[in-house]
Amino acid sequence: MVPGEENQLVPKEDVFWRCRQNIFDEMKKKFSQIENAAEEPRVLCIIQDTTNSKTVNERITLNLPASTPVRKLFEDVANKVGYINGTFDLVWGNGINTADMASLDHTSDKSLLDANFEPGKKNFLHLTDKDGEQPQILLEDSNAVDDSVHDRFIGPLPREGSVGSTSDYVSQSYSYSSILNKSETGYVGLVNQAMTCYLNSLLQTLFMTPEFRNALYKWEFEESEEDPVTSIPYQLQRLFVLLQTSKKRAIETTDVTRSFGWDSSEAWQQHDVQELCRVMFDALEQKWKQTEQADLINELYQGKLKDYVRCLECGYEGWRIDTYLDIPLVIRPYGSSQAFASVEEALHAFIQPEILDGPNQYFCERCKKKCDARKGLRFLHFPYLLTLQLKRFDFDYTTMHRIKLNDRMTFPEELDMSTFIDVEDENSLIYELFSVMVHSGSAAGGHYYACIKSFSDEQWYSFNDQHVSRITQEDIKKTHGGSSGSRGYYSSAFASSTNAYMLIYRLKDPARNAKFLEVDEYPEHIRNLVQRERELEEQEKRQREIERNTCKIKLFCLHPVKQVMMENKLEVHKDKTLKEAVEMAYKMMDLEEVIPLDCCRLVKYDEFHDYLERSYEGEEDTPMGLLLGGVKSTYMFDLLLETRKPDQVFQSYKPGEVMVKVHVVDLKAESVAVPITVRAYLNQTVTEFKQLISKAIHLPAETMRIVLERCYNDLRLLSVPSKTLKAEGFFRSNKVFVESSETLDYQMAFTDSHLWKLLDRHANTIRLFVLLPEQSPGSYSKRTAYQKAGGDSGNVDDDCERLKGPVGSLKSVEAILEESTEKLKSLSLQQQQDGDNGDSSKSTETSDFENIESPLNERDSSASVDNRELEQHIQTSDPENFQSEERSDSDVNNDRSTSSVDSDILSSSHSSDTLCNAENTQIPLANGLDSHSITSSRRTKANEGKKETWDTAEEDSGTDSEYDESGKSRGEMQYMYFKAEPYAADEGSGEGHKWLMVHVDKRITLAAFKQHLEPFVGVLSSHFKVFRVYASNQEFESVRLNETLSSFSDDNKITIRLGRALKKGEYRVKVYQLLVNEQEPCKFLLDAVFAKGMTVRQSKEELVPQLREQCGLELSIDRFRLRKKTWKNPGTVFLDYHIYEEDINISSNWEVFLEVLDGVEKMKSMSQLAVLSRRWRPSEMKLDPFQEVVLESSSVDELREKLSEISGIPLEDIEFAKGRGTFPCDISVLDIHQDLDWNPKVSTLNVWPLYICDDGAVIFYRDKTEEVMELTDEQRNELMKKESSRLQKTGHRVTYSPRKEKALKIYLDGAPNKDLTQD
């Protein structure tokens, strides 16, 4: 057949090429679509959820095409965060005030481009509440299999937020409503108070037991007979009603535990659930006496068994009947490495009898002799509710610690107990499992939860504190314990720690198996209780709704009288108006008796920047919810209750303004005034800003200088008139200093000007309170008498004297300066200076806080161009005011003994600004500079010729030296400001105490600070110490003299104590006595000072008198040694010829042992080795005292010889071991014989495993032929107690120290202090 033209066959090659072409066309089409999409601009949206404090830091990022409708944006955001679309708003967040912006329309079809979104840039949006209501959570349909993945879990709960998380943003704990909503299972959880999981597990099991719950409901509480708070059955009733009817996810158990008589500390105590079960049942039986429920516990849980002993010779059987509430089943038999495989196997072992033979024979009453016997248990009656306790907690006698056995033990869902009973019973004994209480963790602690089967729907549920979820039979099998595979003896160590601990079975008996009471079957009193609980829950719900609609915001108010900033929390409903909120804040701040209500208003405030953001004029009737931007858990701003005087008018604060605190500076008075507040705009120029300030403070703008303090020590002069405030660095809240005077200081460079120096000092000056010693050295009576004689004298002759001796003498100059320093505090002169000296007058009316003394102003009219020092260039300004007077050296000494503190008290006015020199010439002081600052700096110059000078010694890193290199030149040191004046401290500081209030530049070094304090303490700075007082009155000595006071802050307290401070190369050393055979081998003796270059013998010579005076130790220099101390370990013995810093490294706060010798010092060379030996006597179970052994080398043979020599043990029988741990290496006598590494196979001591390379090692030794004493169990227990007590006292490891647990008690009267016997 010839095929037609239309049906012609196509060659295979053509088919291939056509297919290929089609594929290329499709790909081209898709690439074209992609290119078109790529060409379209995209919009990056960054959304911040501000509706919840937990999500305020979360960011959602969406990258959408510019043509995307706005409604699609809302849909994407809703899906991303898990909110219902339409229940939230989106507003712009690009630095725009969201309160003034309209929200985007969630139904708009406008594209993002048309809605003013900017492509290629970050578009910030805020997700906010809609109409003051929080967004609604999107609840997923989670009624599928196993109650959703979110709720299904077995075992301890993970950390919050890690369970049920569908994304990084949405988690199960995200919504407040999700915590309140009831579980999808219909069951209610219990809140874990802290460690009450064991209680929750038992309570849920009892609640899910129909017979127990129904019986509890039938019991009626009589309020007239008992307090409901302490009634355990009534509180259980309430709890069960809430578990059955509440709409919450979980309820509290605090009312139940309060009825137990527990306080909050009990919530932090972990207990055993089986122990709780017994104690609670006992308490219920006591409470239910003489009621229908009196025998309820016995009827449900009590069984009977026979404990018997049968003689194997005559067949006589002795027995007694016992009752039980639970059956304890052993997991692993004692001494066995194999656990029982199942509950049935453990039950058989429980009733398996044992043979009493040998020393354990039984005395038969019939045979009248000891006979072999069979002892065992027989079950006579099983309870309706069978409780099996799996004894997973055991005691390991090897480690002497409690352990948990995690071995696998299976248990059936149905258990036939007929094979375990001793009597015939026609009734069926088939039990069904309905509760498994699971423990997860170790013997030291863990977590309980319960797996319970509901008799209503035969479904298993996991009750894990507040979480309830459905589980399967497979999940129950996971609680059998054990692990996959076999690990032999160590199988328990590698097994899962989550396993069943208590099992509860119910007898399958249709006649007795009860169902839960229905609501219509409730007794009348339970119906009333249900109604009351529902009303309380509804009331609580309404209260939560009020809380949900209540704005809670920080409230501040500057008290108009006390001028103290007060802080509180304003809680106002979102529908309350601003006017009502002002009235609430007015009453909250207790201003009713202080200021009228109409003189108060609320303004928006930023506490961090101390910035008033805006005021609310004309919005008195606006709801607070709208003013504050909705109800939020946290706000990004605060409120300030602003007050005014009746004759004042409130200033209007507009958004966009900046607040400026203006301090007016007076260069003549050298004062900085308290600030006044002005508001400006960032776009104002400096010129406009000057005009604004000029109107506020009434100073001329033409000569005005404005200095901006942007941050600490960052002063910026606003010198460009056309610059805007924004360009100058102004922000929300600013601080400026303003000066307007026609002085030459205006023409100087800013950093060289008087204004800069004054402001620099103002920024760095701190106020300290210094407590002086109770009694300074010298004759206090003489000083007082002298002060009374001359303190009120107005004659200059009595105040400035000339010392005998040459003027150029360094000693004379120092004496003059010292004397002048002491005398100036008692002077009452007004300085008179020439006009060329500059204006040195000082206002005494300005407060101490605002008026700060200036540094040295060295523009003396007589000074030369090279600014020579005052000591080298002394000029007479007004010689007529001074007269020469000669005095004796004794008079001078009396003057010098006068403390400047006393002078201050006696003086009737401020100290004079003059200083006297050797020729009675007046030395003009700098404008306002305190005389003691000058004197101290002069003393530095006066002492230049001496060997020891202040702040000039070479730096000695790591040494607490009085002489250090501060790194400051003397020109710089002149500007380190210091001013001190007497201060009346609070009562209770004690008689004789004197306080100084010191204003000081915190850049000053501690060494210079001490120099300034010398006149007030009365001794040189090398003879007193400075202690900084911290919180709780803790004192720590400040010793680093080259460090500044920058770590101090305003109002810090300092205590001065007399005592020699350290010099260069000196170290403070703590000396401890080493008592090797005492219970506490380390005893503190005293603090001493050792110096670099000093020999050990020299330090011992200095210690001898100190030991005699301070410690009562009368020692000769050759009868004690010094040795290294490392914590409590004695180390290297220091030989007398050793030199500190050369042979012995020494450091700050060094510690050293002092050891009293029994005889002549045996250590003569560094090649010797001193070890401490102690003999162990196993036959007596005791240790001998320590004995020192001095070796000439590190040879083991020599050690053996020495030990044999002191002990009398034959050399070949000596065995030794190195002690472990810190000195004295204590170890229990029960462990020493086998725990130490005896007789190491080494020839020298300095190798492994001994590593004895230094003095002080502890060596135990014994006679290897000596047998260990055999102990009875009673002796061993007694010895264990003694050893535990001994080792605990010495602070060393105890062989067995069980975890101390608080006994579990339930107090029937709710008061633990009234009944301590109820257990």
From TrEMBL:
It comes from the Eukaryota. Residues 873-882, 927-937 have a biased composition (Polar residues). It is an enzyme of class 3 (hydrolase). Residues 826-843, 897-913 have a biased composition (Low complexity). Keywords: Coiled coil, Hydrolase, Protease, Thiol protease, Ubl conjugation pathway. One of its GO terms (molecular function) is cysteine-type deubiquitinase activity. One of its GO terms (biological process) is proteolysis. Residues 856-872, 884-894, 941-950 have a biased composition (Basic and acidic residues). Residues 188-508 form the USP domain. Residues 951-964 have a biased composition (Acidic residues). The keyword Coiled coil applies. CDD domains: peptidase_C19C. Gene3D superfamilies: Cysteine proteinases. The keyword Coiled coil applies. Pfam families: Ubiquitin_USP47_N (PF25985), UCH (PF00443), USP47_C (PF19718). PANTHER family: UBIQUITIN CARBOXYL-TERMINAL HYDROLASE, UBIQUITIN CARBOXYL-TERMINAL HYDROLASE 47. This is Ubiquitin carboxyl-terminal hydrolase 47. It comes from Oryctolagus cuniculus (Rabbit). The gene is USP47.
